[in-house]
Design brief:
about 35% helix, binds phosphoenolpyruvate, alpha/beta, about 300 residues, binds manganese (II) ion, about 15% strand, two-stranded antiparallel ribbon
């Protein structure tokens, strides 16, 4: 028998790692349905994919309001925008902080769309909770356990992005930290992972296989962020459609009003992956025109082999 290394976990360990959110432990979800997470009037896991859209970072009131109005008319259900940005370099734009949160709230109130924004530090959970309808835990923070606990305690719905090198077990373990605080309002978000080719011809590798795999192991809704996964605006529409075909419960997409050419108003953060409102409206239309969502969510979840290492 092959010996296990210390700390090595496999999907069969999920009963121990994430019992609270595990589909197999909850007979009421044995039909493949999801736990429905409510954010204002937006329902994740109800059968119809949710579209969250907005800029990578909130840069000014004018920029945020312009993008918010544009994504609302394109048919998005929710707004996004970072006020606290986790950047690779401390010399890059870090976000507007509290001022950004206030702008985001104003955009939410103006459009009537709920907002999600990232919280990068447990000391900021209370402040961000005052302005946001949903808290985002970013890829870089997925294994910041004190932050997960504090976010769970806030009682706010949580958007938990997958760590860029995280296995499914580690991702579900992170979700369990939030659930362990009595908060089941968790939406998982695949956002691309590191592979040997990351950065060569795409920013990350969009792991669509993880969508049905996660849905088989947990009843929580699973959405996809095609923007960070590809890093290229020209690929976001196809990646969105592919994600929908893989049965995801929604999309989170970066949008800007930038024309892609002029030097002015180029987003300070992730400019090359931001799509236009026009492209967003085609994605929304694709979802609206597509039939069979109810069938997708009610099909029985097929558990994965239990001996896979992760
Ligand atoms: C984001 O969505 O703004 C973001 C920083 O994404 P990620 O944490 O997936 O890199
Ligand atoms: Mn971004």
């Amino acid at each position: 028998m092959q010996q296990k290394l210390a700390g090595q976990v496999s999907l069969q360990d999920l009963s121990r790692i994430s019992p609270t959110i595990r589909r197999q432990n909850h007979p009421e979800f044995s039909d493949g349905s999801r736990f429905v997470v409510e954010v204002g009037n937006v329902l994740f896991g109800s059968g119809l994919p949710v579209v969250i859209a907005g800029p990578c970072a909130i840069e000014s009131e004018r920029q945020m309001i312009e993008v918010a109005l544009a994504v609302k008319s394109a048919g998005a259900d929710m707004l996004r925008g970072g006020a606290f940005k986790p950047r690779t370099s401390p010399h890059d734009f870090q976000g507007l902080g509290l001022e950004g949160l206030k702008i985001l709230r104003a955009a939410a109130d103006l459009t009537g769309l709920p907002v999600v924004t990232e919280v990068i530090d447990l000391r900021l959970v209370e402040q961000v909770s005052q302005y946001a309808d949903m808290l985002q835990i970013g890829s870089r923070s997925m294994q910041n356990y004190p932050l997960l606990i504090e976010a769970g305690r806030s009682g706010k719905p949580i958007l938990l992005k997958r760590g860029m090198s995280a296995s499914l077990c580690e991702w579900l373990g992170a979700a369990e930290y939030i659930a362990s605080q009595g908060n089941l309002n968790i939406v998982l978000c695949e956002r691309g992972i590191k592979t040997p080719t990351s950065g060569e011809y795409s920013r990350f590798c969009l792991d669509l296989n993880v969508v049905p795999a996660a849905q088989a192991e947990t009843f929580l809704p699973v959405i996809v962020d095609p923007s960070h996964a590809t890093g290229m605006a020209s690929r976001v529409e196809n990646a969105s459609r592919a994600s929908i075909e893989f049965g995801c419960d929604g999309l989170m997409i970066e949008v800007s009003a930038w024309d892609g050419a002029s030097a002015t108003h180029r987003p300070l953060c992730d400019a090359d992956q931001a799509i236009t409102p026009e492209t967003l409206s085609r994605i929304v239309q694709f979802i609206r025109d597509r039939k069979g969502f109810e069938d997708a969510t009610s099909s029985p979840a097929i558990p994965l082999g239990s001996n896979r290492q992760c």
